[in-house]
């Protein structure tokens, strides 16, 4: 989960400005964290997972909510 928190940090400027994140901006954040650009397919998958209201943009609330729910599910599975 460290990589996801790095991406959240990379998106911090958008969050601080109160703006949402577009697919291109998410790709740039991923590139800043991982080095190479990610495929447009991966960006589409990430938006499918994180864009809860399907408006084509991410806000921090959506991103954090999904991260927390996925983290909780993973931790719960490890307990069993």
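Sequence proposed for the structure above (80 residues):
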């Amino acid at each position: 989960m460290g990589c996801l928190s790095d991406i959240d940090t990379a998106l911090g400027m958008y969050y601080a400005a109160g703006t949402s994140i577009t697919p291109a901006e998410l790709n740039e954040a991923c590139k800043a964290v991982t080095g190479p650009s990610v495929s447009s397919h991966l960006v589409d998958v990430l938006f499918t997972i994180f864009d809860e209201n399907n408006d084509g943009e991410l806000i921090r609330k959506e991103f954090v909510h999904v991260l927390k729910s996925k983290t909780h599910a993973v931790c719960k599975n490890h307990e069993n």
